[in-house]
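Chapter review. Work through the record for Microtubule-associated protein 1 before attempting the end-of-chapter questions.
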Amino acid sequence: MLSRHFFNSAVSVKIVNFLGNAYQFGSVLIGSVLWKRQIWDEVGETDEERDKMLLQLEQECLDVYKRKVDLAVKSRAHLLQTLADARVELTNLLSALGEKTYVGIPEKTSGTIKEQLAAIAPALEKLWKQKDERIKEFSDVQSQTQKICAEIAGASDKVESPAVDESDLSLKKLDEFHAQLQELQKEKSDRLHKVLEFVSTVHDLCAVLGMDFLTTVTEVHPSLNDSTGVQSKSISNDTLSRLAETVLALKEDKQQRLQKIQELATQLIDLWNLMDTPPEERSLFDHVTCNISASVDEVTIPGALALDLIEQAEVEVERLDQLKASRMKEIAFKRQSELEEIFAQAHIEIDTEAARAKILSLIDSGNVEPTELLADMDNQIVKAKEEALSRKEILDKVEKWMSACEEESWLEDYNRDENRYNASRGAHLNLKRAEKARILVNKIPALVDSLVAKTRAWEQDRGITFTYDGVPLLAMLDEYAMLRQDREEEKKRLRDQKKFHEQMSKEQESAFGATPSPARQPSTKKVVGPRANGGANGSSSRRLSLNAHQNGSRSINRDGKRDNRPVAPLNYVAISKEDAASHISGTEHLPSTP
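Structure tokens for Microtubule-associated protein 1:
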């Protein structure tokens, strides 16, 4: 490499000065010889001695001159080599820095060697300085890149300073290193964000599970402690993998604990409900029961799934189980009451006294475990609910049929009332009700057909008879159909009789000229709607009855046989004040006067 201080060589300067002062030196030498000849004349030196001495002096002068000339030639060659080296160095610097040209380089190469060197020197100095700065930039970028790569790889050893390739220090290469560094910095930022998210998740999970967060997180990597700075946290692949495994393990533990505590909460609530535990005692375990229907993500309260809390709930469940055994009869009868209520709502008759007597005998005999008895009763309740659910659709239609039959009975009573069109209080409300009742009555045949079809399908599917409070429903529907047919025949007979009387009246009027007073029309048979006698809850112990008011129509008992049972007439003006207020207007078409 060319030395940057080759311009300060003192020897080269002296040789050049010698070449410039050679002529002056020769003149001085001749004068000195003439002065010596005078001395030789005085001394009496021979010519031979004088010639010899002059030859020696001449030879010494030539040797000195030759040496000086050789030194000047070498100095010139050295300067030329220095100039050539400077130009090569300049070319190399421009190539390494990626510069094609440089503003400070002189275009012309004329002038002395020293002038040419002096012209190149400033450009070289600036390029050397620029090269040093560029090497430092490369070193910084490569150091940061190696450091981030080491952090990602999880290397704990100290990163050595990178070796900079001085042959390519161009801005393009530097930009490539910067782009690589930016990608690594982005990856580091993303990894750090993931690490912080994992650490935050671990913190939240540990809080919910009642675990020590610092112990858990430092087991993954010591740098994850809160005392370390954010930039000092490990972002290696191993750390991320272990954090993900830790989060997964904590989530599985949270899921298992939540499932356990929900099971305990369900048991607690069941036991409380069985033994009518007061709210004050239940509130002691609100922190357990509050999560009975919560999802895993919804449980965020610190300590909500701690092990000591689960153990506390287990102890309470065990205590209540022991207390339940001492109150077995009370609990069993409570289950039996629930079962009876389900059957009553489904209109299924059971022998309640026999069932309760059997429960008492089983408990008193001690042949069955209390838990087994309650489990059997629970199974009966489940089956009863399934049975009630299978009957629901048919029972809903039975209710509609009953309501329609009641409206039909009311409408017949209303039609027989000769004063129904009088302007009395509530008359317009009855007219409104009559219009709705006629629409509903017209739907009864289709409703009955649908009810019969669904009942038969239900019976074929289950192979048993569908009963309503102990009475076969199909038999009731058949009885209703026969009564409705009898009523239609009676109506037809009355219409024919009415026509006959009108014909007779016209004949008498033409014969005698007098109009007899019209006789009151005999009442027609009506089908009174089947309606249950409400029990304690308005739905238990119902009995369907199909009977006619004061006409001896038939009804059906539990065995499917017909009997005659009178029923009190329904009040056709039974309408609430609220319904009356909701009707602004509404009249029925009045019959034309003959």
